[in-house]
Structures are given as structure tokens and as C-alpha cells.
Design goal:
two-stranded antiparallel ribbon; mainly alpha
Length: 96
């Protein structure tokens, strides 16, 4: 480890950024695709595929996972403000 640069921390930040920056949009896109397939979207040349409720249900579960991840991220960013304003210290926030 260098005195002025922490390679391990930089690698952790890079990996987290890749997972959250590319992983969540990819999950959302997968959920949109599964929802379309589950709803019986147009299959081509005027034909409509059969509805598949299982795919629709899985897509809504994935939408929920993405929503929870976004909410946790927003709460993590605002944790000190929320703690200061409400006295409720979440996600590792410390009273000052």
C-alpha cells in the first residue's frame, strides 16, 4: 500500500460503483423485459404471445428489489440530516 493512495479502498469503490451503477439498471431492464413477456406483449406481425403470470410476478419482485436498493441509497446519503432533524439515527449515523 502506498503512503498517498489506498489501492484496496479504490478497488472496493470501483467494484461497488460497477455493481450499483450497472447492476441496478440491468436488473430494472430485466424486470421490464420480463413484465412485457408476462403481460403477453406483441410477438411480431400482429400476433400476441400468451400471458404468463409467473413472469409478471417475478418482474414485480425485481422492481421491488430495485426500489428498496434506491431507497436505502437515498437514506444512506441523507442519514446525518435525518438524524439531526428527527433524532432517529439510521444506517450508522452518529449523533453530533
Amino acid at each position: 500500500m502506498s503512503q498517498w493512495f489506498n489501492y484496496e479502498a479504490a478497488l472496493k469503490i470501483l467494484m461497488f460503483g460497477l455493481v450499483m451503477g450497472a447492476g441496478l439498471p440491468a436488473l430494472f431492464a430485466l424486470a421490464v423485459r420480463m413484465n412485457a413477456a408476462g403481460a403477453g406483449a406483441a410477438a411480431g406481425e400482429g400476433t400476441v404471445a400468451q400471458k404468463n403470470p409467473a413472469l409478471a410476478a417475478v418482474s414485480w419482485v425485481i422492481f421491488g428489489i430495485v426500489l428498496v436498493a434506491v431507497l436505502i441509497g437515498v437514506l444512506f446519503i441523507a442519514r446525518d440530516f435525518i438524524g439531526h432533524q428527527t433524532g432517529l439515527y439510521l444506517l450508522g449515523a452518529k449523533p453530533k
